[in-house]
Design a protein that fits this description.
The protein is of the alpha+beta class. The chain has 6 helices and 19 strands. The chain has a 6-stranded antiparallel beta sheet with strand order 5-6-3-10-13-8.
Length: about 290
C-alpha cells in the first residue's frame, strides 16, 4: 500500500491571518492528504484516503487508483445545480471515491497539459474558476456556476458561466483545480489594476469583480483590436488576488477546429439523464 506524505496545510491556497490558521487546524484533521506532482506542465495529484474518507472528482479526472476503493456516481447538488454546472464545462455527475483501508491512493489529473493547484474553501471564502477547471475535492463542496458577464463571454474568450466552489457555513473544504499552462498568483494592491489577456483568467475569490475592456492609445484601443486582433483584456482592481493560466484553452479548441472555440456539450445530456435515473432509483429504494 502507498505511503502517504505528511499533511501540509500551508501548501493550500487560501486566505490570510487568523482565518487561515483556523482553517489549517481543521484541514489537518479532516481533509484528505494529497501531493501534487509534475508541475507546471503535466501536473497530477495523488490523494490518500483512509477508511471512510471520501473525495469527489470530475468524471474524467481519474488516472489510476488502488484496488478496493469504493466508487459511486452521484449528481451532486441535484438536477438544477448539475445542469447549471454543465454550462460551465463541468460534469453533471461526479465520481465519489471512498477509502476502505489505510493510505489508499487515488490519482487524478487535468485533461489539458498544465498546472494543478489546491484551494482552501470556507463559507466566507468561496472561489470562482475558469470553465471546466474542477478536478477533485472534499465531498462537502458545492460546485456550481456563476454568470461571467456578457462582455466576458462574447469578447474575452470566457465561457458564459464560470465554475463556482463553496461550502456551507461552519464547514471547510479543499478543491484541486487545473489550468492550461502554468498557474501564476498576482496580488493587486489597493488602487491599482491588473490587466489580463483574454482566456488567461484562472481563479479568484467569489466576491471578485472584473470588467472587460480594450488597451491601446489609438481610438481607445479599437485600432489594436481591428488591426492586430488583440487588446481585449480583463481588468481587475485591487486590493485582490487573482490567479492566471499561461495558455488560452479556448484558442486550443479553436486551433483544433471546435466550432466557436468552445467545448461541445456532447454527452452532457446523457450524463444528466443517467444522474436523474440514479437519483430516482435511490429514492425508490428508500421508500
Amino acid at each position: 500500500m502507498a505511503q502517504a506524505p505528511e499533511a501540509d496545510p500551508n501548501s493550500i491556497v487560501l486566505l490570510e491571518g487568523d482565518e487561515r490558521n483556523t482553517f489549517n487546524e481543521k484541514v489537518a484533521n479532516q481533509a484528505f492528504v494529497y501531493q501534487i506532482k509534475g508541475r507546471p506542465a503535466f501536473a497530477y495529484g495523488d490523494i490518500y484516503l483512509n477508511e471512510g474518507q471520501k473525495v469527489i472528482a470530475d468524471s474524467n479526472a481519474l488516472l489510476w487508483m488502488d484496488g478496493g476503493i469504493d466508487l459511486d456516481v452521484n449528481m451532486e447538488g441535484g438536477c438544477c445545480t448539475a445542469y447549471m454546472r454543465s454550462c460551465s464545462g463541468e460534469s453533471c455527475c461526479f465520481n465519489g471515491y471512498t477509502g476502505t483501508g489505510a493510505n489508499q491512493k487515488v490519482t487524478v489529473g487535468f485533461k489539458l497539459p498544465g498546472d494543478l493547484m489546491a484551494f482552501g474553501t470556507t463559507h466566507k471564502n468561496g472561489w470562482i474558476f475558469t470553465f471546466d477547471a474542477f478536478v477533485a475535492g472534499t465531498n462537502n463542496l458545492m460546485v456550481g456556476s456563476r454568470f461571467s458577464g456578457c462582455c466576458a463571454c462574447i469578447c474575452a474568450d470566457e465561457s458564459t458561466f464560470l465554475t463556482s466552489v463553496k461550502v456551507k457555513e461552519g464547514e471547510t473544504g479543499v478543491v484541486l483545480a487545473g489550468g492550461y499552462g502554468m498557474i501564476e498568483r498576482h496580488e493587486i494592491p489597493a488602487n491599482e489594476e491588473l490587466l489580463v489577456s483574454r482566456g488567461l483568467f484562472f481563479a479568484a475569490r467569489e466576491d471578485t469583480q472584473f470588467d472587460v475592456g480594450l488597451i491601446g492609445q489609438e481610438c481607445g484601443g479599437c485600432c489594436n483590436l481591428c488591426c492586430a486582433n488583440g487588446g481585449i483584456v480583463y481588468k481587475f482592481k485591487g486590493p485582490s488576488v487573482v490567479y492566471t493560466q499561461s495558455k488560452n484553452p479556448i484558442q486550443l479548441y479553436r486551433d483544433f477546429g471546435i466550432p466557436g472555440g468552445k467545448e461541445t456539450n456532447t454527452g452532457k445530456a446523457c450524463n444528466l439523464v443517467c444522474g436523474v435515473v440514479k437519483q430516482a432509483g435511490n429514492a425508490a429504494q428508500q421508500q
